[in-house]
Design goal:
Shape: elongated
Number of strands: 11
Strand content: over 45%
Distance between the termini: 40 Å
Radius of gyration: 14 Å
Helix content: under 10%
Length: 121
Amino acid sequence: QVQLLESGGGLVQPGGSLRLSCRASGRIYSINAMGWYRQAPGKQRELVARVFSDGGTNYGPSVMGRFTLSKDDTRNTTFLEMNNLKPADTAVYYCHADLAPGSLGMRYDFWGQGTQVTVSS
């Protein structure tokens, strides 16, 4: 059983910073990518950032230059540093992992339960 354990989030003023972390635990053979998506009320879920096994990263256009995603392979954990937060960043943030739980290498998508980030004065 694979679980994605999220931490961080909360309420912050505009211009402030927050850090999210996500750890994948359980039966994991390999991880192709881990990252974060977000969903604001009435909007579709969108990519925030993801990091691949080779270290390559993708960022959503609205967060480039403000958010930084890093990973610790020894702990199957990713860290999302969010700086210069704006009210438009308010959303539920979901951790995502594209990984193979078994040695056959078949990959599946796993999601965390989500953590609320609210940017407001």
